[in-house]
Amino acid sequence: MVRTETSSVLSGPRFLGPALDDLGVRRGADGIATLRVWSGTADAMDLVVFDDTDLDWATAVLPMSDVGDGVWSVTSELLRPGARYAIRVNGPHGPGNTFNPTTLLLEPYSRGLVSGGYEDWRSVVVDGGFDWGDARKPRIPLDRTVIYEGHVKGLTKRHPDVPPALHGTYAGLAHPAMIEHLQTLGVTSVELLPVHAFATEPRLLQLGLANYWGYNSLNFFTPHGAYATAESRREGPEAILREFKGMVKLLHEAGLEVILDVVYNHTAEEGIGGPRTSFRGIDNRNYYRQTEDGTYIDVTGCGNAVNTSTDAAARLVIDSLRYWAQEVQVDGFRFDLAATLGRDETHAFTPQHPLLQAILHDPQLADVKMIAEPWDVGMGGWQTGNFGEGWSEWNDRYRDRVRNFWLSDVDYARRADTAPVGVGGFATRLAGSSNTFSVERGPLASVNFVTAHDGFTLRDLVSYDVKHNIGNGEHNRDGADTNRSFNHGAEGKTDDEGILATRRKAMRNLLGTLLLSAGVPMLTAGDEFARTQRGNNNAYCHDSSLTWLSWQHEPWQEDLFAHVRELIRLRQANPALRPTRFARSGESTPSASVMAWYDERGEMMSEDRWTNPAHRTLQYVATSTPEFEDANTVLLMVHGDERPIDVTLPLVDGIERYVPVWSSADERPTGQGGASLPGDTVSLIGTSMRLFVAE
């Protein structure tokens, strides 16, 4: 994803100007450091320095000076690497202001944190030196990218080949056993659930639960300390950061990208009355969205929403992204509730928001993958397809249509003898969602997914009709009620081999669709071997074996893994499956795939066949338009009815034979046998797929 500077960025926006440069602690050549903190409303600010071992012993209090443009500054040799410090801020009373000069606050640009207990945090000065050696960012082209979304702790907490001391840690993720798994699977990019330092909400602590996912940020520059090894935690924040960078380095040396799920839309301070750790005490009025009387405008559902229409908040986001992309060398970002970041001073979303545009065009963020979760919970919050050129977006329309086609439609058909819709909408998603993303953006704007960290796992999606979240402490009220899932005849665990076989095939159909669709596929960690959360579709608060990946698998799970590995290999080998542009009728578009659609009779699809629920069989012929790779043509058969069918291979100019390479009907991927000729008949079992390479 290549972006270049534009004149609009070079001359603005205002928040990129010099007034907000060099915030946080900056050490000079003489070793003496300066701390700069922004507060547009404060009338006094102090730096408080603490003893190295006793976080309650303040060894120095230094007044900070107002140097203009809302910036407060102090220079001191006490701000050496390893120093523990906090700030105290005073200001006027009135609606929207919540100053308390006795509260110790985290400095927003802190590179390290230590905790003395809940709501008792200190910032730490970090040097950040690290030897990257010859490691370089892999820079995987977007069309070849296969994302693997996982949780740092959950990935390795139970891995038998990772040493116990590394279980659930950054170092554990970079252990050779994990790297071998990722490379064998064939994914290119590991997308990590939040790794910015975060805290658990008081409500969960009272229930004896924890914020496992991490969408509750304390600070946007510090890696979460609990994911570091015990040895690094003992050494302190410098070692924790070094371990994180070491993980990135080893993954890069293995050719794997690191994408961070970042939460800039809200913080752990929750609503008024919640924890006061940083922004609320520094400048509540300017950091959080609120009405004139100080009431929070919460478009995130988490108690507060960061007000990125203010210069300081927007600059904080940009500076954080620059830090992780440059100094920590991460390869991309997935923006949680990204619609919140694009809300202007009237709290309405606009894709032209200065922050969204700055993210795309900042020279320090060039070649960094930018992925939006294109919604929040506020008015006008659903914005899928609207983020504009340069962004990729989580495509919830893809998720819903694919689930419908293979699951809820089939469930409906069992009861009504016919599905509710035909194959047309599914085909649009298979081909890149051109009805959602513009020609200028192309299919790679769509990050396709069937499951994610929130919601059912793949196995649970085919095993449960309803959520089972009673363990979350909210009387099963939390989590989505509409899942488009299908239990195939029994709720949850069953010994019925017929049901189990049908579930396995349904998983293969879902994975086959995901990995053979135009767009950027995202696989959820553990789905490659069908992990379960026992029907919990909102397991954010469980740091336990419910959410940690199990690495002990039955033979059928290894078979599923083999399917995923083979599907990724086929995707990479066939450029027709991963176009970078949409084809245009009557034109030759480089790196597009020309698509032709046939029914089960081998005839071009008629309007009736697209829309008729009684006809849910499709043959999809995609031919690449060479630009950087050799020409390639594939045929994908899709049969969305539980009754078997005979399909006639289409007669297509230039195609002499069809070589079968994959079938969802197989329990384990096998050699598919000899080639078939155009006009030959192929038998498909109910609800299945087959892929051919055309020659």
Describe the structure.
The model is unreliable at about 1-10 (pLDDT under 50). This protein folds into 3 domains: about 15-125, Immunoglobulins (Immunoglobulin-like, Sandwich); about 140-575, TIM Barrel (Alpha-Beta Barrel), CATH 3.20.20.80; about 585-695, Immunoglobulin-like (Sandwich), CATH 2.60.40.1180. The chain is elongated. It is built from 17 helices and 24 strands. By secondary structure, it is an alpha/beta fold.
Coarse structural class = alpha/beta
**Beta strand count:** 24
Task: Characterize the biggest β-sheet.
Answer: 8 strands, parallel, barrel
Number of helices: 17
Brief summary:
With 695 residues, the chain is α/β, with parallel strands linked by helices. The chain contains 17 helices and 24 strands.
Q: Secondary-structure blueprint of this entry?
A:
Elements: H1 7-11, E1 24-27, E2 33-38, E3 44-50, E4 58-63, E5 65-68, E6 71-76, E7 84-90, E8 112-117, E9 120-124, E10 147-150, H2 152-156, H3 170-173, H4 176-185, E11 189-192, H5 202-206, H6 230-235, H7 237-253, E12 257-262, H8 279-287, H9 311-327, E13 332-335, H10 338-341, H11 354-361, E14 369-372, E15 392-394, H12 396-416, H13 424-430, E16 446-448, H14 458-461, H15 497-516, E17 520-524, H16 555-573, E18 593-598, H17 607-611, E19 617-624, E20 633-639, E21 645-648, E22 658-663, E23 681-684, E24 688-694
Parallel strand pairs: 10-11, 10-17, 11-12, 12-13, 13-14, 14-15, 15-16, 16-17
Antiparallel strand pairs: 1-2, 2-6, 3-4, 3-7, 5-6, 7-9, 8-9, 18-19, 19-20, 20-24, 21-23, 22-24
Helix pairs in contact: 9-11, 12-13, 12-15, 15-16
Family: Belongs to the glycosyl hydrolase 13 family.
Protein name: Glycogen debranching protein GlgX
Keywords: Glycosidase, Hydrolase
